[in-house]
């Protein structure tokens, strides 16, 4: 059995039990010890960590055949809107990320590493084909995270954990059961250091989640995403269209949420909804500012229309009003005034406008 730098596994299991994990959770961990998510080093060795607070961010990304038409967009969104966005944040030194890819099999792209060392996706590493072993991928990812997080905690490092699963449909190839994964997820959430979210991809044309097996063909993508999130015990369900802008949006939202998790003392509930609301508020504020700015420019333009040579507009305090007709209508006759040294233009005839 290869422990992949995790030290004495018996000690890890004993400390995990002391920290509140149950035998059911550790059974799932044991079942995946020899799985594909443990074939390489699980994470950065302890002696290479330069911080006493770490956020572990795991991405579990669907690479089944139905994702093939969208591979290029997903690759760019993951690299630019997720990796690059987080690398430019102030929390870059406190985040370690790991990525798992799955179709009918599960593969570990890399264990927990710092953002500068994270492997970017390309056509070689992300090449969709096959079916969807969703439960196997989540089970392997949770086992991987539990062991590494426990090693960090045992060494006195404060740990926060965030797991994001991205998929476009139901499981159809796993050997492990959804109820076992869900039970483990619920146990981990009780520790208040885990954030678990599911992102359901849908067809942008009709907003139907691709690959979902439901009797109600008109069910919205959000309902389908929530259904599958519930099946694996995840508390947050999000959706994103399978197009360039939507994929960039969701990966950027995840990057911002991960940074926010890294700045909290405990895993906050509803972090993704809060991030989305915050982004909408900021966008609304920006639109309001732009509107007011545009309104101000237009108003100023209307007040500063081009005037004849030798004329300029007076401040409001210097404006005089003069009656021009029998209806006593008032118009700003002195809103403009000849500049010193220049003759005043002819005054409008009485009664004219």
Report the strand count: 10
**pLDDT averaged residue by residue:** 81
Strand content: 15-25%
Order of helices and strands: HHEHEEHEHEHEHHEEEE
What is the radius of gyration computed over CA atoms, rounded to a whole number of angstroms?
A: 30 Å
Strand order of the largest sheet: 3-2-1-4-5-6
Structural class: alpha/beta
Characterise this structure:
- The protein contains eight helices and ten strands.
- The chain has a six-stranded mixed beta sheet, with helices on both faces. A two-stranded antiparallel sheet has the order 7-10. It has a two-stranded antiparallel sheet with strand order 8-9.
- Helix 1 crosses helix 4, helix 3 packs parallel to helix 7 and helix 7 crosses helix 8.
- Helix 6 links the parallel strand 5 and strand 6.
- 37% of the residues lie in helices and 18% in strands.
- With 353 residues, it is of the alpha/beta class.
- About 8% of the residues have low confidence.
Question: Which labels suit this protein?
Answer:
353 residues; alpha/beta; 6-stranded mixed β-sheet; two-stranded antiparallel sheet; 37% helix
């Amino acid at each position: 059995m290869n422990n992949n730098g995790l030290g004495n596994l018996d000690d890890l299991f004993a400390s995990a039990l002391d920290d509140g994990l149950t035998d059911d959770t550790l059974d799932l961990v044991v079942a995946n010890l020899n799985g594909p998510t443990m074939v390489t080093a699980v994470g950065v060795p302890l002696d290479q960590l330069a911080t006493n607070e770490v956020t572990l961010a795991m991405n579990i990304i669907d690479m089944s055949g139905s994702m093939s038409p969208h591979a290029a967009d997903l690759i760019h969104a993951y690299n630019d809107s997720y990796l690059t966005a987080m690398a430019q944040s102030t929390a870059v030194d406190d985040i370690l990320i790991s990525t798992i890819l799955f179709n009918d099999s599960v593969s570990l792209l890399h264990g927990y590493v710092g953002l500068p060392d994270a492997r970017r996706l390309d056509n070689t590493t992300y090449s969709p084909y096959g079916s969807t072993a969703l439960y196997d991928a989540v089970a392997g990812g949770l086992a991987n995270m539990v062991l590494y997080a426990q090693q960090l905690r045992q060494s006195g490092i404060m740990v926060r954990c965030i797991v994001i699963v991205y998929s476009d449909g139901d499981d159809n190839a796993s050997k492990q059961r959804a109820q076992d994964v869900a039970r483990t997820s619920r146990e981990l959430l009780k520790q208040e250091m885990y954030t678990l979210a599911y992102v359901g991809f849908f067809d942008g044309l009709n907003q139907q989640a691709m690959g979902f097996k439901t009797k109600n063909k008109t069910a919205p993508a959000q309902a389908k995403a929530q259904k599958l999130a519930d099946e694996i015990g995840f508390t947050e369900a999000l959706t994103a269209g399978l197009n360039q802008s939507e994929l960039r949006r969701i990966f950027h939202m995840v990057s911002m949420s991960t940074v926010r998790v890294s700045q909290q003392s405990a895993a906050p509930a509803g972090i993704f909804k809060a991030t989305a609301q915050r982004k909408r508020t900021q966008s609304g504020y920006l639109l309001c500012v732009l509107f007011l700015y545009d309104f101000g420019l237009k108003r100023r333009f209307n007040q500063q229309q081009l005037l004849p040579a030798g004329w300029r507009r007076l401040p409001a305090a210097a404006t005089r009003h003069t009656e021009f007709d029998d209806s006593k209508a008032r118009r700003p006759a002195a809103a403009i005034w000849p500049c010193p040294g220049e003759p005043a233009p002819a005054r409008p005839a009485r009664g004219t406008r």
